[in-house]
Amino acid sequence: VKQPLEINQLQFSLAHTLLLDAPAYLNTTDSHGISRDANVLDYCRRNHITIQCYSPFQYGVFEGTFIGNPDYAQLNAVLTRLAKKYDTTENGIAVAWLLRHTANMQVVVGTTNASRIPGIVKGAEITLTREEWYELYAAAGNKLP
Ligand SMILES: NC(=O)c1ccc[n+]([C@@H]2O[C@H](COP(=O)([O-])OP(=O)(O)OC[C@H]3O[C@@H](n4cnc5c(N)ncnc54)[C@H](OP(=O)(O)O)[C@@H]3O)[C@@H](O)[C@H]2O)c1
Fold first, then answer.
1. Per-residue three-class SS string for the chain
2. What's residue 103's pLDDT?
3. Which of the two ends of the chain, N or C, has the fewest CB atoms closer than 10 A to its terminal CB?
4. Does the pLDDT of residue 62 top 80, yes or no?
């Protein structure tokens, strides 16, 4: 197209991190080290295209939410601890994690429950520490180099 592309919506959440896994697994034989998306994150950053994260609370391809899901017990334990620390909800911390990435992304939430909105909005005002960001990434089941 001739029009400049300003937005790219990509699935990105704590439990769906394909967008940034490959560099973390660089130089290992782990299959996560294979980039399956033609490095779209880097492409967007180089070309000033804002990434909008869709399905910020989902895992897999619309299989369900990881928040409160016993299959993500370790992740939820960290989400709950940080939610208390920052006076928000687990949803809020999940949003803060996405927004902490230096690509300056936007988050598209799909909740139909108005009571979740204040926590989500608070999440946009929170700056997680680097240690917290990586703790959440690891608690979601990822390995750290
Ligand atoms: N460009 C694309 O290809 C593409 C693809 C998919 C989606 N999208 C856009 O992105 C938007 C968001 O996607 P999404 O709806 O998948 O995002 P989402 O915000 O990750 O998921 C919303 C779902 O998660 C549930 N949920 C959230 N927090 C929860 C919690 N703490 N406990 C239990 N359930 C919880 C919500 O239930 P409640 O309603 O009860 O909160 C709702 O069913 C869509 O509306 C669409 O506009 C774009």
1. CCCCCCEEEEECECCECHHHHHHHCCCCCCHHHCCCCCCHHHHHHHCCCEEEEECCCEECCCCEECCCCHHHHHHHHHHHHHHHHCCCCHHHHHHHHHHCCCCCCEEECCCCCHHHHHHHHHHCCCCCCHHHHHHHHHHCCCCCC
2. 96
3. N
4. no
Please tell me which residue, 14 or 1, carries the higher pLDDT value: 14
Indicate if the pLDDT at residue 116 is higher than 80: yes
Q: Is 64 in the pocket of ligand 1 (CB under 6 A)?
A: no
The CATH number of the domain where 83 resides is what? 3.20.20.100
CA 64 – ligand 1 centroid, Å:
9
**29 C-alpha to ligand 1 centroid (Å):** 33
**Which ligand 1 atom sits closest to the C-alpha of 113?**
41
Domain that holds residue 36: 7-139
Q: Which atom of ligand 1 is nearest to the CA of 109?
A: 19
